Amino acid sequence: MSDPLVESARVIEPFDGGAWVEVLRRPACGGCAARGGCGTRTLARWGAARPLRLAVSSRQPLAIGQEVRLALPARALTGASLWAYGLPLALALAGALLAEALGGDDPVVALAFAAGLGAGLLGLGAHARRASGRYRPRLLEPPC
Questions:
Q1: Mean pLDDT throughout 33-44?
Q2: Which residue windows are transmembrane per the record (predicted)?
Q3: What are the two backbone dihedrals, phi and then psi, of residue 5, each rounded to the nearest 5 degrees?
Q4: Contact (Cβ atoms closer than 8 angstroms) between residue 97 and residue 113
């Protein structure tokens, strides 16, 4: 079994049974800190404008400004990635291949690809509503 992914967060608004927390984002690699590298630094700057806020459950009361640690099983991240990318892509390709097999010309194949992509995104939304708790980070107890 793989180790969970652990991130630090700060409590911004406690509520009964948990709190809203803001994840303390950090660059993915040392290249960002060194102002060089692969271009991820530019993407990280775009994301830095909006902090990531999450609601977490807690058996203990939490205080504003308290630093906590969140854990997400690596398997949950892998599963979410497969659903998010795999389902829309698979249905888009299936739509395009089916249209081509039925003798459709290029515009028909493109429309079938778009229809499959749309169906995949709708399916992804339905899956996200059913399984949202599976992909939520958990508060490591006791808080730090």
A1: 58
A2: 82-102, 108-128
A3: -85, 130
A4: no
Measured CA to CA, the distance from residue 86 to residue 123 in angstroms comes to 11
pTM of the complete model: 0.61
The tokens describing 33, both together, are: 């800190």
Conformational region of residue 71, where left means phi above 0, alpha means psi within -120 to 50, and beta covers everything else? beta
Torsion sign (Cα): 120, 79, 11, 46 = negative
The CA angle 65-15-79, to the nearest 5 degrees, is 85
The domains of the chain are located at 5-139
In tens, the pLDDT along 117-141 reads: 999 999 999 998 888 777 788 888 7
SS (H, E, C) 73-118: CHHHHHHHHHHHHHHHHHHHHHHHHHHHHCCCCHHHHHHHHHHHHH
